[in-house]
Amino acid sequence: MKKIAFIVAFLLVAGATWAQKYAFVDTDYILENIPAYTAAQQQLDQISNQYQKELETMHAELEKMYSDYQTEAVLLSDDMKRKREDVIISKEKEYKSAQRQYFGPEGELYKKREGFVKPIQDDIFNAVQEIANEGSYAVIFDKSGGMSMLYTNPKFDLSDQVLQKLGYKN
């Protein structure tokens, strides 16, 4: 009796597993076809370039200060040397602080990226979720991420459906 119950349970589980629907999307492709994302990326690139130029200017000033110090060090008294070194060290700290402020994990660029791109990503996620519910999909993979997919059948690619759900045409 236990054998029969085990076989029936196995067949039910196996049947349920085989009946699952799977699909995939390519979020890179989807994002490329959303004009708001392209505009956000361009804005982020401009902001990043602006921050980078500011840092390069600060770095050039720091290099000049250090170079001048090395040139004049032999003529300076010990007290003057310490003062100049303190100024250089202070400027280095300011430079590193600016780097973290602009490009750090919680920096300005990260916050701006989150503000510009996150709403678009949320819309994509919601559209995928709606399609999954409507189509009774068990799993929808994203082939653009770090996941390796050796083969994907194009008939299971829902990327265009996601774009349509968002109101865009490819």
TrEMBL record:
Transmembrane segments: none annotated. GO terms for biological process: protein stabilization. It comes from the Bacteria. SUPFAM superfamilies: OmpH-like (SSF111384). SMART domains: OmpH. PANTHER family: CHAPERONE PROTEIN SKP. Belongs to the Skp family. This is Periplasmic chaperone for outer membrane proteins Skp.
